[in-house]
Amino acid sequence: MMARRFRLRPLPSDDENWWEDSNPAIDRREFMRHSFNTAAGVITMASLGSIGFASLLMGTADSSGGDSAVRFWVPTGAEDSAWYGDRHLEPMNYSAFVDAAANSGTGMSGAQGVWSGMPVNVVYVPHEENVSKAATTNVPRFQFMDGYNESGKYIGSGYELEENPDYASLSIHDNLILIFSRCTHLCCIPGWQLVQNDFTNDQWTPGAVDAGGNKLFCICHSSRFDPTAIEKNRSRNRSSGAEFDFVGIRRTGGPAPYGLPLIPWVKSGDIIEALPDFIDWYTYCD
Ligand code: FES
Q: Residue 76: what pLDDT?
């Protein structure tokens, strides 16, 4: 049985001050600075000229949330192809991922999202059902792996997610993870099955190899990330050069130097809500 390990949080009210009230240590404006609403982010994406993905530019504060709910984000052009295509900016509900997974070959599902103006991906993996089975193709589960930085230096193990109390809120639960989705190469937005190729097909290969499908794929320069491979790694702020360790998913290929950080989340009723426990991890593109 899937265990819910975290306390439920109340649904956010319509109160504009909800964020500050709930997170007194965090200035919302400061938090949004880390989002995709920054001028630098707009310039980066505008210069790419990628039709469709350019629409991933996060909109106004009104449309980008600012509360704890994670919302679906449907890129222009994906309205008819993504299973969540008619749900742009609606709060994500957990059961939608379970339903979508039931219609996939691997039992996985995923979607683009936005949380407080930041691009995210949500990926459902039938881990609880498969963890005791043999690790064979198309029987996906989460894999805890060793993480190495760009120089090949060992940074730590994905198992720290379960063993280090500092990461308690990140402990995987309910077969679902929330991923911060700015590419560690040049800060584009890796997507879930928004383009079709061997890396994005509904397919799973054990071992976090750079083959098989269901990778998060960055259309800008084709970096790939395995959302089932949990590792510890080291990231660097592009402006200051400051380094910090994070727990996230593994980069399997392309020019991205390392993977993408996880975001802790809870189920509030059926709604997927994110927790701002590790906001420093999401600042590398500032
Ligand atoms: S920005 Fe993602 S591969 Fe270059």
A: 86
pTM of the model: 0.80
d(CA 169, CA 187): 26
How far is the centre of ligand 1, averaged over its atoms, from the C-alpha of 210 (Å)? Answer: 16
Instruction: Report, as an integer, the average pLDDT of 14-27.
Output: 36
Taking 80 as the threshold, does the pLDDT of residue 205 lie above it?
A: yes
Q: CA 224 → CA 10, 53, 199, 209, 244, distances in Å?
A: 36, 16, 7, 10, 22
Pocket test for ligand 1, best of 53, 180, 188 (most atoms within 8 A of CB): 188
Q: Which of 129, 115, 111 is nearest to 174 (CA)?
A: 129
pLDDT one-digit tens code per residue, 159-177: 999 999 999 999 999 999 9
158: number of Cβ within 10 Å: 23
pLDDT score at 65: 43
Q: How high is the pLDDT of residue 286? A: 86
Decide: 274 and 64 in contact? Cβ < 8 Å.
no
Range 235-259 average pLDDT? 95
220 in ligand 1 pocket by Cβ < 6 Å? yes
Residue 186, ligand 1, Cβ within 6 A: yes
Determine the atom of ligand 1 nearest the C-alpha atom of 188.
1
Exposure string of 228-255, with b = 16+ CB inside 10 Å and e = fewer, is bbbbbbbbbeeeeeeeeebbbbbbbbbe
Ligand 1 contact, 221 CB (< 6 A): yes
Domains and their CATH numbers in the chain:
18-282 (2.102.10.10)
> Whose CA is closest to atom 3 on ligand 1?
221
H/E stretch holding 121 reads strand 118-124
CA 154 to chain centroid, in Å, comes to 23
Question: Which among 110, 73, 67, 77 has a CA at the least distance from the CA of 88?
Answer: 73
